[in-house]
Design goal:
By secondary structure, the protein is α/β, with parallel strands linked by helices. Helices cover 42% and strands 16% of the residues. It has two domains: 35-112, Winged helix-like DNA-binding domain superfamily/Winged helix DNA-binding domain (Arc Repressor Mutant, subunit A, Orthogonal Bundle); 139-357, 3-Layer(aba) Sandwich (Rossmann fold), CATH 3.40.50.150. The protein has helices at residues 35-55, 58-65, 70-77, 81-93, 108-113, 133-137, 139-145, 156-177, 179-182, 201-209, 224-233, 270-284, 306-318, 327-336; strands at 97-100, 103-106, 191-195, 214-219, 240-244, 257-263, 285-295, 340-348, 351-357. The strands form two sheets. It has a seven-stranded mixed sheet with strand order 5-4-3-6-7-9-8, sandwiched between helices. Strands 1-2 form a two-stranded antiparallel sheet.
Length: 360
């Protein structure tokens, strides 16, 4: 009598059981997939494929040339044909270019984020978003010792200048869109304090929406020229005072400002530093003034918002005190400082801000 294999009597068991071995199928469990391990292994290569494409000007070349062969792109950017073809195929695998019949072209993602003049370009951000690359090769030692080998605090301007230049487009888009949630444009002539402003995207967005508004823009001596250049570019420099110094110690007027912005600065400072900045903001605001605190916030279980969680690891890898904190932690610190009317807004995807008011 011959044996004929049959499907399991319960089809749903196929989701977790296999017929790899002779016997009752529901006793043979399928092992977990290795995909998450391979995703981590390939993560390094994925990043450097994209970084090389940016450094070789591949995306801007394809914007200039239109759909092109590897030979045409190689001639334009000055690269070896077969090596460039391999790189282009890698970028296609990342779904950041399209390819058909050996002709490569920009897709919608590349046009928006990876050409240098894209409407939401991240091209300048790619090289600096991860922090100093050497710190990642020493991460295990950083975890053992509790301090990175070369923290960015050793030479902050060298790191922050390209970072704030690279993030300006996204942050300015976020700050501009935030008016739909915060309505700062409804104020007639607000006085804005932008602490650790970087390129001052928040101050610029508010001043452009409020023609009578003025701003005090603070950052380190080596970083402040970026804000000066950006405010000049956006034609609001004549309404700005540039105040150099460490945001923990720079002199601030009391009960003086209508809006205080802490834009993506708290996560570099650790808990004590973040709470100190919130307290300084409260003291500087007029009664009825508004705090805007933008950052990457981790969920309470530290696993459902992987972007923020990995950003926290990035802070740990390259700063002396930096970590990301949860929505709950920030909301508690803001309330403890004395603020009320606390709410969370998300002007654009993955860019959230707490908004709170100093009681009258």
């Amino acid at each position: 009598m011959s044996f004929e294999p049959r499907d399991a009597p319960y089809p749903e068991l196929k989701n977790s059981h296999t017929m790899a071995h002779t016997g009752r199928p529901w006793t043979d469990f399928k092992p977990p997939p290795s995909a998450p391990v391979w995703a981590a292994v390939e993560g390094l290569g994925r990043y450097y494929i994209l970084l090389a494409a940016i450094e070789l000007d591949v995306f801007d070349a394809l914007q200039r040339l239109g759909p092109s062969s590897a030979e045409d792109v190689a001639a334009d950017v000055g690269a070896a044909v077969e090596h460039l073809r391999s790189l282009l195929d890698g970028v296609v695998a990342l779904e950041l270019l399209d390819q058909f019949n050996d002709v490569y072209e920009l897709n919608d993602t590349a046009r928006r984020y990876l050409v240098s003049d894209g409407p939401a370009t991240m091209a300048e951000l790619i090289a600096v978003a991860t922090g100093p690359h050497d710190n990642w090769t020493r991460l295990a030692e950083t975890v053992r010792s509790g301090c990175p080998a070369t923290p960015i605090e050793n030479d902050p301007a060298a790191f922050y200048v390209p970072l704030v230049e690279g993030t300006f487009t996204t942050m300015f888009r976020c700050a501009t869109r935030a008016d739909l949630k915060i309505r700062y444009s409804a104020r007639s002539a607000p006085l804005v304090l932008d602490l650790g402003a970087g390129g001052a995207p928040w101050a610029i967005a508010i001043l452009k929406a409020c023609p009578e508004g003025r701003a005090v823009i603070n950052d380190l001596d080596g970083v402040l020229p970026v804000a000066q250049a950006k405010t000049l570019e956006h034609e609001v420099a004549d309404r700005c005072e540039f105040r150099p110094g460490d945001f923990h110690t720079v002199t601030l007027e009391v009960d003086h400002y209508d809006i205080v912005v802490l834009g993506h600065v708290c996560r570099t400072e650790g808990e004590a530093g973040a709470r100190s900045l919130i307290t300084r903001a409260f003291a500087a605001l007029k009664p009825g003034g508004t705090l805007i605190l933008a950052d990457y916030f981790v969920d309470v279980e530290r696993k459902f918002n992987p972007h923020a969680v990995i950003m926290g690891t990035t802070m740990m890898a390259s700063t002396e005190r930096g970590f990301c904190f949860t929505h709950q932690q920030f909301s508690e610190w803001i309330r403890e400082a004395g603020f009320g009317q606390l709410r969370l807004v998300e002007p654009i995807g993955f860019q959230q801000s707490f908004v709170a008011v100093k009681p009258r």
